[in-house]
Design a protein that fits this description.
By secondary structure, the chain is an alpha+beta fold. Among the domains are: 96 residues, Roll (SH3 type barrels), CATH 2.30.30.30; 51 residues. The longest helix is centred in the last third of the chain and has 62 residues. The N and C termini lie far apart (165 Å).
Length: 228
């Protein structure tokens, strides 16, 4: 009896450890968990995002895909295709849509498997009472959260308005200072252009001086010849 009790305790502890959702980085262990996952976890892994209209009205972002839901493909070769879910395969983690088929070599048509992560739910099948109850529960939780977010946004807007005015005032003097610098820059560039003009005038003034010296030399020679 004592041995049986020990075995039961050991099994219960092991079961608790398996149910814990701890993160695993090893890809081999991740594949093993997907392959050995129980039905209730497989059902959660088959979830897909709701459209913006549905998420706003139902108060949920994602839900597991079920037979009868209308769905639109968001990625892949068949992007944009919309149809009803005809079958859900929990073993292979795939869904099948009405009208999405391909022709085999022998001429028979088969349904194409699609992963639920590539899909967006456009319309929900609410025949199941449990699904209705979950949506009502999520909607009741989402309402107060939305109200709190709206209040927080309105409070932030009221606090941010005076800050924007102070920033505008501080930016104005900086804009006035910039044109003064741009006006002074061309004055410096024109200043060195006047130097060669001054040299030309000096050269012209020196030329008649030389001519006058030559004329003086000629007159002195003529005076000497006249004295002789």
């Amino acid at each position: 009896m004592a041995e049986n009790r020990k075995c039961l305790k050991h099994n219960s502890v092991g079961a608790r450890k398996v149910q814990k959702t701890s993160r695993v980085k090893n890809p081999g262990k991740q594949r093993k968990r997907l392959f050995n996952a129980p039905a209730h976890i497989r059902h959660k892994l088959m979830s897909a995002p709701l459209s913006n209209e549905l998420s706003a009205s139902r108060g949920a972002k994602t839900l597991p895909v079920r037979k009868g839901d209308t769905v639109r493909i968001q990625r892949g070769d068949h992007k944009g295709f919309e149809g009803k879910v005809s079958r859900v395969d929990l073993k292979e983690y795939r869904i099948y849509l009405e009208g999405l088929t391909r022709e085999k070599v022998d001429g028979t048509n088969i349904f194409l498997p699609i992963h639920p992560s590539k899909v967006e739910i456009r319309n929900l099948n609410l025949d199941d009472k449990i699904r209705k109850a979950t949506l009502e529960r999520k909607q009741a939780v989402a309402k107060p959260v939305k109200e709190q977010k709206l209040k927080a946004k309105s409070a932030k807007k009221t606090t941010e308005k005076p800050k924007a005015k102070t920033e505008e005032i501080t930016e104005e003097p900086a804009e006035e200072a910039t044109p003064e610098i741009t006006e002074e820059a061309p004055v410096d560039k024109k200043a060195p252009a006047k130097k060669p003009v001054a040299k030309k005038t000096v050269a012209k003034k020196q030329a008649p001086a030389k001519e006058s010296e030559g004329a003086k030399g000629k007159t002195s020679k003529e005076t000497e010849q006249g004295g002789q």
